[in-house]
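Late entry, flavin-adenine dinucleotide complex.
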Amino acid sequence: MRSLPPRMMDLLYHEMILPEETVEVRKKVREFAIKEVAPRAHEIAHQEESTDTFPRDIFEKMAKEELFKIPFPKEYGGLGLKYPTCATVVTIEELAYISNSIAAVYDVHCILCGHAIMYGSDFIRNKYLKPMTEGNLIGCFATTEPEASSDLSSHSVKTVARKSGNKYIVNGHKRFITNAAVANHVTVLVNLEGKLSELVIELDSPGCTVGDPDKKMGNRGQLTSDIYFDNVEVPEENLISEQGNGLRVALGTLTYGRVGIAASGVGMAQSAFDECVEYMKNREAFGKKISQFQYWQFKLAERAIQIENSRNLYTKAALRIDQGFEFPEPEAAGAKYYGTECAGDMARDAVQIFGGYGFMRTLAHDHSTYKVEEIFRDYKIAEIYEGTNEIQKMIISRAIFGRDNL
Ligand SMILES: Cc1cc2nc3c(=O)[nH]c(=O)nc-3n(C[C@H](O)[C@H](O)[C@H](O)COP(=O)(O)OP(=O)(O)OC[C@H]3O[C@@H](n4cnc5c(N)ncnc54)[C@H](O)[C@@H]3O)c2cc1C
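Prediction complete; structure with ligand written out below:
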């Protein structure tokens, strides 16, 4: 296993905002990620996707460490923290620092599926959420379809449900669904009589099929698959919230989710930054260390402040959720677009700083590997999923001008 570089966050970032409770969670998750995720991170990032490559060992260890309990109240199996959102997104940053695939698996299980279920009845929370916090059930979340994702209006969503007695009958097709290949249930946005609703569907229901995992550029430990629904019967008690309230459930969940994705961007940016600092202090050109070239000093200075700002932004968005704001805008959208762009800027610089080595998956000569290559592939999806960065800018524009002036 490659050794990890010194944590520059400890030197440069002075924690003044997050509660002590969250700082403790960060410490615990950091230790966990170094001990349990780091030894597997390279393999997870480079393997070809298949159902067998789901990082089940890490998933089980996260459950044992009670990481899935962090976001939730005690009565549904959670830790009952005072600032659960802050703790959840800090967990994602720390996981993403080591492996963005693992951060994504955690994000979808806990934030997307778990948070959507929190909109549901006690029955749904007890049946699905409690075992999820123990790691005994795996969850996924489906809004995206072949023809709809950024636009989730009722005329775009083609997965339909109709009521038949005390059941819903579901037909349709969802795409890119993280964890679906291994999950037990999915929260699904459906079109019910022209209005959007959200259902929990068990994936072993007759008529429900999950496709093979997609082969992706990065985040190879995050398995995505299509889900097909062919006359799937869903008990009426599996409706989340009320009929017609599905878009609110989906958007409320995705708003929380985008704060998590912002944190994953910060984790990846910090990881690439730390790799660069160490490399620049050791690699020489023209008789000087790379760290002695002012061009690269200034680049790192810019990125250090970008990371600082990104971390502050996601922290502020998380604190607003913990204060009870369901749609903490413009902070959540701002944190997502800024934090993931920060990861992209840092990943591009990092590969450049490493020169040819930054392009290597494995160097044949000595089998050495380079984390920045992995981050360069993994960061890109953060600018796309859970609302593309263009959609985030639309949300910020709405806050500036008001819906009526757009
Ligand atoms: C690895 C991975 C994991 C995923 N996991 C999940 C999951 O678990 N569950 C799930 O439901 N989905 C998931 N997705 C889907 C993901 O959320 C969508 O891919 C994303 O929201 C973008 O949707 P789209 O691909 O349909 O792009 P489109 O909506 O077709 O957009 C295409 C381009 O047009 C731009 N665009 C669209 N509208 C506007 C506008 N009004 N103004 C300016 N530009 C615009 C977009 O920003 C984008 O650049 C995942 C995708 C991937 C690749």
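Residues 108, 140-144, 149-150, 176-178, 216, 219, 222, 224, 381, 384-386, 388, 390-391 surround flavin-adenine dinucleotide (CB under 6 Å). Will revisit in the morning.
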